[in-house]
């Protein structure tokens, strides 16, 4: 029987645990606060940021919102980042990407205080992840890869010794998930496929687990996967549904693959809710570190 990896349910359980930890922190005089910097009014970014603040309200974390117009200069954006670095009420924060054209995103990320990097994407924190093959990591972890691993763990899917094929080399997950999957605590073997990979389907057919993060709607077909594979669908594409007459989100995995898989994450409703839950987890953990 194929298992549906329900990200919504798993994220709800995680948030319930986080809410209890937030209450304990408040009893000790620490109130976690999540900051967001939104530049412009991109519909997807506006909706995503609003969802983050709704999550904050759900678990009792303070919301700190910074918004700038689409024509904001680099220095204005940098000033907002510095403000959050200096704000003691802001435990951790994110700069919502993408930034408007002409703004150097990496330069903005470099300005983030690594200790307040709720996305876990600052070069310092990524470097710590590279260095720590084993043992405990006390710096923020990238949210989407962490969400994938937590989702699999919630369903007792062991990755020790498994072959994992990652599709896509984006920084959000493709280039970072291998660092986490190959840590001794997980112990998987990872193949990263991208536009320069010859015969991607051959790599996919050998994999026990496929993490699809290409942003290519329905790319993964049933004839590309082995029987019993585990499918994590992280890709996001907007396609027009002629039957209902509106745009909708579609993942990288064709739904026809589900009956051939042993487990799959739906899209939407799979890794997305887990990413948001891991953002909250990073902020709560940052606050807990203040106690020590």
TrEMBL record:
Q: Which GO terms describe its biological process?
A: L-histidine biosynthetic process; methionine biosynthetic process; purine nucleotide biosynthetic process; tetrahydrofolate interconversion
Give a yes or no for keyword Amino-acid biosynthesis in this entry: yes
State the UniProt keywords alphabetically. Amino-acid biosynthesis, Histidine biosynthesis, Hydrolase, Methionine biosynthesis, Multifunctional enzyme, NADP, One-carbon metabolism, Oxidoreductase, Purine biosynthesis
Kindly list the positions annotated as binding NADP(+). 168-170, 236
Please state every residue range assigned to the domain named Tetrahydrofolate dehydrogenase/cyclohydrolase NAD(P)-binding.
142-290
Kindly list any coiled-coil regions of this protein.
Answer: none
Pathway info: One-carbon metabolism; tetrahydrofolate interconversion
Q: Could you give a GO molecular-function term held by this entry?
A: methylenetetrahydrofolate dehydrogenase (NADP+) activity
Q: Which GO terms describe its cellular component?
A: cytosol
Return the CDD domains for the record: NAD_bind_m-THF_DH_Cyclohyd (cd01080)
- Tell me which domain of life the UniProt entry assigns to the organism this sequence originates from: Bacteria
- Catalysed conversion reaction: (6R)-5,10-methylene-5,6,7,8-tetrahydrofolate + NADP(+) = (6R)-5,10-methenyltetrahydrofolate + NADPH; (6R)-5,10-methenyltetrahydrofolate + H2O = (6R)-10-formyltetrahydrofolate + H(+)
Its Enzyme Commission number(s) read: 1.5.1.5, 3.5.4.9
Function summary: Catalyzes the oxidation of 5,10-methylenetetrahydrofolate to 5,10-methenyltetrahydrofolate and then the hydrolysis of 5,10-methenyltetrahydrofolate to 10-formyltetrahydrofolate.
Q: Give the similarity note.
A: Belongs to the tetrahydrofolate dehydrogenase/cyclohydrolase family.
Quaternary structure, per UniProt, is: Homodimer.
What's this protein's name? Bifunctional protein FolD
The organism that produces this protein has a lineage beginning with: Bacteria, Bacillati, Actinomycetota, Actinomycetes, Bifidobacteriales
